[in-house]
Amino acid sequence: MSPRRPFHYRETEGIRVTVRPLYLPEHSRPGRSEFVFAYFVRLENVGGTAAQLLWRRCRIHDDIGEETEVEGEGVVGEQPSLAPGETHEHQSFCVLRSPRGWMEGRYTFVRPGGERFEALIPRVDLAITTEGPVA
Fold first, then answer.
1. Residue range 12-64, pLDDT digits in tens
2. Which of 5, 13, 57, 130 could potentially form a cystine with 71 if both were Cys, beta carbons 3.0 to 4.6 Å apart?
């Protein structure tokens, strides 16, 4: 039986953000306090109006108290527009200094009429066990 792979989601202003973390032992170096986690993100417009992603801001925190803030335009070099019912998927990674931590944040979107709003990124727990990631 394969380990459970948790996912976290949150819906704000008609945008559903789903995140699935995955510990990457083959890229980690626990002896050097480097724990690598990939995360897979799905943005889905479940509302009735189109929206374009402009900006992202994410806080990544580990259990030894280190916190990193990542922000910038779009995601992975893109600022996707999502019509109602459309999705956009991307993946990225982070390196923690401890085997446990969490991340959360927000995306800034704009509607066709110029209205800006934020879609919240759910708090995603990052942890490893001998069986794999846990929620």
1. 999 999 999 999 999 999 999 999 999 999 999 999 999 999 999 999 999 99
2. 57
Under CATH, to which class is 8-133 assigned? Answer: mainly beta
Q: What is the pLDDT of residues 95-117, one digit of tens each?
A: 999 999 999 999 999 999 999 99
Helix H, strand E, coil C: the string for 57-81 is EEEEEECCCCEEEEEEECECCECCE
Q: Quick one: which of 74, 70, 49, 71 has its CA closest to 61?
A: 70
Asked whether the beta carbons of 81 and 50 are under 8 A apart, the reply is: yes
Q: Provide the token pair at 131.
A: 């069986």
Alpha carbons 15 and 60: distance in angstroms, whole number: 22
Whose structure tokens read 């995140």? 19
